[in-house]
């Protein structure tokens, strides 16, 4: 009787694959302990080596606006000392309606625009919507009489802010 012997043979592909799996598992289990987890690449970009693929880690620099920047939208608007109610009282007490003395059409709304600086001063005053030259001149005169405002704030810092002020004129 002849005995049959079965030999178990591995091909080179199977041997290489087995070695690859064992080396890969050893590397995963060791987990790069104590290794430098960041690498600096081309142009100073920083990459993380912890993940399987390199991913870019951005480095942000805080943007600083120039001192003369004028904001239109801020966290805290500039304010007349005492608030809106005090401003309207100031306007009512100081405006001399030119329509009462001159025979010109003087009813309507004048829109004035100006910048309230980071110091609370009014500058670059101009009329955006006009009724007539006499009313415009009176509007500019009264706004120039205003005391310093409380400056507007952005990120906790006083900044220059553009302010639009409509003033309604009506003869009674």
TrEMBL record:
Top-level division of the source organism's lineage: Bacteria
Topological relation to the membrane, as annotated: Single-pass membrane protein
Entry's Gene Ontology molecular function annotations: energy transducer activity
Predominant subcellular localization, coarse grouping: membrane
PANTHER family xrefs: PROTEIN TONB (PTHR33446:SF2), PROTEIN TONB-RELATED (PTHR33446)
Protein name: TonB family protein
Signal peptide (UniProt feature, chain positions): 1-35
Entries under InterPro entries matching the protein: TonB-dependent_transducer (IPR051045), TonB/TolA_C (IPR006260), TonB_C (IPR037682)
Listed GO CC annotations: plasma membrane protein complex
Any Gene Ontology biological process: protein transport
Species per Swiss-Prot/TrEMBL record: Adhaeribacter radiodurans
The family this protein is said to belong to: Belongs to the TonB family.
Subcellular localization(s) per the UniProt record: Cell inner membrane
All copies of domain TonB C-terminal, residue ranges: 82-172
Protein keywords: Cell inner membrane, Cell membrane, Membrane, Protein transport, Signal, Transmembrane, Transmembrane helix, Transport
């Amino acid at each position: 009787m002849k005995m049959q012997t079965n030999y178990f043979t591995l091909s080179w592909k199977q041997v290489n694959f087995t070695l690859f799996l064992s080396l890969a598992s050893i590397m995963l289990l060791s987990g790069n302990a104590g290794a430098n987890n960041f690498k600096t690449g081309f142009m100073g970009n920083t990459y993380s080596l912890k993940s399987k693929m390199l991913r870019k880690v951005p480095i942000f620099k805080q943007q600083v606006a120039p001192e003369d920047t004028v904001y239109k939208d801020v966290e805290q608007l500039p304010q007349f000392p005492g608030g809106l109610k005090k401003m309207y009282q100031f306007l009512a007490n100081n405006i001399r309606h030119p329509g009462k003395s001159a025979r010109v059409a003087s009813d309507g709304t004048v829109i004035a625009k100006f910048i309230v600086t980071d110091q609370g001063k009014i500058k670059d005053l101009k009329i955006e919507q006009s009724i007539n030259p006499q009313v415009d001149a009176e509007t500019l005169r009264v706004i120039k009489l205003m005391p310093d405002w409380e400056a507007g704030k952005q990120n906790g810092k006083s900044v220059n802010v553009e302010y639009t002020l409509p003033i309604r004129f009506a003869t009674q």
